[in-house]
Amino acid sequence: MTEVVRVLVVDDDPLVRSGLTMMLDGADGIVVAGAAGDGDEVTAALDRHAADVVLMDIRMARVNGLAATRRVRARAQPPEVIVLTTFDTDENVLHALRAGASGFLLKDSPPARIAEAIRRVAAGDPILSPAITRRLMDRAVTESGAQRRARTALAALSSREHEVALAVGQGSTNAEIAASLHLSVATVKAHITRILTKLGLGNRTQIALLMHDAGYC
Asked: What is the largest CA-CA distance in the chain?
């Protein structure tokens, strides 16, 4: 990426906010546009500071990261959201992904990993650690009929769109999908846009979750 990625840091711990801000402001191609101390401050913060990516704590006192993610993704031309979590204790990560987050990071992730995740999400690639994502997705189908509903929804896709959706569900990047299906990256992006529109989804992470619900991944 050649453009600067503007980040909003949301965490109720002032030390964490300060640490992330200092770390990210020194990262190549990233600028911290602003910060917020709770989920109820996110909307106002985004009104003041345009951001491409929101780095969102999941556990906050007044409005948690799950509710705040919904608010962010409901905005016109919303920024992407990366949820920060301590996996063993945060039960709402999967729900945050369903709410529209583009992925998640463990709070003890190395600084370089966090910076790279922000750049990737801004470029349109979700951040889904294979090992942890599998554990999360294994818990996705919790209600009766989830597979049937998912497959019914996916029936609206063309055969090519289904192939692209399957590759997204398997964690492939746009470039990898293009290579495997002998398409251009621009064509892959167009297919993903149509898939999102047909299925009423907000981002490719939700495509992956729906493919898993259907039992295809």
From this structure: 50
Class of the domain covering 146-213: mainly alpha
SS3 label, residue 33: strand
At 84-142, the pLDDT tens digits run 877 655 566 777 777 888 888 888 888 888 999 999 899 888 776 555 556 655 655 45
Q: What architecture does CATH give domain 5-137?
A: 3-Layer(aba) Sandwich (3.40)
Q: Are strands 103-106 and 53-57 parallel, antiparallel or unpaired?
A: unpaired
Phi, psi torsion values for 36, nearest 5 degrees: -140, 150
What tokens appear for 9 in the block?
């840091």
Number of H helices, E strands in the chain: 11, 5
